[in-house]
Amino acid sequence: MSTLRYSIVDVFTDRPFTGNPLAIVFDAEALAAEQMQAIAREFNLSETIFVLPPTTPQATYRARIFTPGTELPFAGHPTVGCAVTLVRDGVVKGPDVVQECGAGLIAVQVDDVHGAATVTGGEPTAGPELDPGPLLESIGLTRADYVGPAPRRAGCGLEFTFLSVTEEAVARLRLLRPVDNLSVFHWDAERRLAHVRVLVPDVGVAEDPATGSAALGFGVWLVSSGLAAGDGLTRYEIAQGLEMHRPSALHCSVTASGGVAVSATVAGHAVPIASGEMIVPPFVG
């Protein structure tokens, strides 16, 4: 019976059993997408990443990323966790690696000594301002909980809608209606710290304990909203997963020029938790 090697790591934390757990499946080039989806459902984590040979000489490895419900073009915590694990295991050489994925080529700098990595996101995108009313209603909040600036979609390879509310409202929100990649947060401008909850039920994950792709997009939102420098580098921190008892720390930066975000980074640790072998699920074509 054919088997596959896998590892489990906790990402965006330096302590086991906190952060965001990730399954990494190695040598996955023989798997069809249907089999990858079946494995992701079996692990039932927010994401499972599959390691494949690159298709371009610019890439160190290729990856496909699945939630329990769908495939994603890019995600932050799988990118950090996979890169740290591949360098730690000696599969690839660091510190600079390039991940090929659905969003293109993603640059990752691995700190093997500390078991951490910094991911540079794809091209920043930002949409127009949105009405906060329907978003607030979908999570059981009111206009009194809203603090602005206006919500908008933004991202660096995967877009999210960003909604700014009071600190108390972050802990109190509850999902009442389906939302599409919604990041709800309170921004502490003095500390450059956001207390964040990310809701992604449309991809089979009610709430994510640490979301690197949303952390990248948050920097784009900060620039678009005038809360980060319009020229040069702004650093910021994200605390996520507190309400899920999976505290996570994401260390971020955004660089802007002429009032427009041009790049963003997210960094964090990855802690090994488990490893083993699993059988290959059947293919049903």
Characterize the biggest β-sheet: 8 strands, mixed, barrel
In one word, what is the shape? globular
Topology, number of strands = 17
Sheet/helix structural class:
alpha+beta
The chain-level mean pLDDT equals: 96
CATH superfamily of the largest domain: Diaminopimelate Epimerase, Chain A, domain 1
Low-confidence stretches: none
Helix content: 10-25%
Structure in words:
The chain has 285 residues and is an alpha+beta fold. The chain has two domains: 3-120 and 270-279, Diaminopimelate Epimerase, Chain A, domain 1, CATH 3.10.310.10; 125-267, Roll (Diaminopimelate Epimerase, Chain A, domain 1), CATH 3.10.310. 18% of the residues lie in helices and 41% in strands. It has five helices and 17 strands. Strands 1-2-3-4-6-7-8-17 form an eight-stranded mixed β-barrel. The protein is globular. The mean pLDDT is 96.
What is the fold's blueprint, element by element?
Blueprint lengths: L2 E9 L8 E6 L7 H11 L4 E5 L8 E6 L4 E2 L3 H13 L7 E6 L2 E8 L4 E5 L4 E2 L5 H7 L13 E4 L3 E6 L2 H6 L9 E7 L4 E8 L4 E4 L3 H13 L7 E9 L7 E10 L2 E20 L6
Parallel strand pairs: 2-3, 4-6, 11-12, 13-15
Antiparallel strand pairs: 1-2, 1-17, 3-4, 4-5, 6-7, 7-8, 8-17, 9-10, 10-11, 12-13, 13-14, 15-16, 16-17
